[in-house]
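Reading a protein record of the kind used here takes little practice once its layout is understood. The reader may check this reading against the record printed directly beneath this paragraph.
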Amino acid sequence: MTQAVIDTTSRAAVERGFRLQWEPAQNAHVLLYPEGMIKLNTSAGEIMKRCDGVATLAEITADLERAFAAANLSADVIRFVTMAVDKRWLRILP
């Protein structure tokens, strides 16, 4: 269960123990961890690679909307980040 309130002002970072990287053999971003690998879909990879612990979710959303000529992505970004925190892929920084 998510403990932190996640909103547009939140800053997320890849959780300790995971490494995000592009995997050419998978043609996708993957999360590597000691026990294995999680292949991310395109949207998840694009969000995760922007979760650097510095950018807020509002800034990440704006960057995604510019990069993909899309609008109203905030709810989708927050929903994904909430799920990734629940799965312990991401952590919310204080």
